[in-house]
Amino acid sequence: MKNRHLAAICDDFTKRLQRQGKFELIELKDGDVDSEGQRILDALNKRKGARTYAMAEEGATLSSMELAGDLGKLHGQPAVFIIGGAYGLSDAVKQSADTMLALSPMTFTHEIARMLLCEQLYRAVAIQAGSKYHHE
């Protein structure tokens, strides 16, 4: 991530998530949509059995409680969340995903999307644990 302030926020949530269980953040080299898409598909092939969520503006929007509930239904199955680069995700990546989610109908940079997703994943874990992080 080029923006060090957003990177610091992501690092904070990554550390929090790692304390809660296994969490891994993988960055792939940027490229055009097709070459980047192929690298994503190659990485997904190494994670067979994981539920994949492609983050795309045309995906479904969930509340934080709904995301926590959806992740709770995995019962230990790994989850992989995919954020595309500057030009989004290839059709092949979107088609390979189990679920397409949108953070918002608005468009964000991939760095802001990563920060928002990291926070929402931490929030989902906090909801599942009954912590006071999430107020409803």
UniProtKB/TrEMBL annotation:
Specifically methylates the pseudouridine at position 1915 (m3Psi1915) in 23S rRNA. Transmembrane segments: none annotated. This is Ribosomal RNA large subunit methyltransferase H. Belongs to the RNA methyltransferase RlmH family. Keywords: Cytoplasm, Methyltransferase, rRNA processing, S-adenosyl-L-methionine, Transferase. It is found in: Cytoplasm. The lineage of its organism: Bacteria, Pseudomonadati, Verrucomicrobiota, Opitutia, Puniceicoccales. It is an enzyme of class 2 (transferase). It catalyses: pseudouridine(1915) in 23S rRNA + S-adenosyl-L-methionine = N(3)-methylpseudouridine(1915) in 23S rRNA + S-adenosyl-L-homocysteine + H(+). Homodimer.
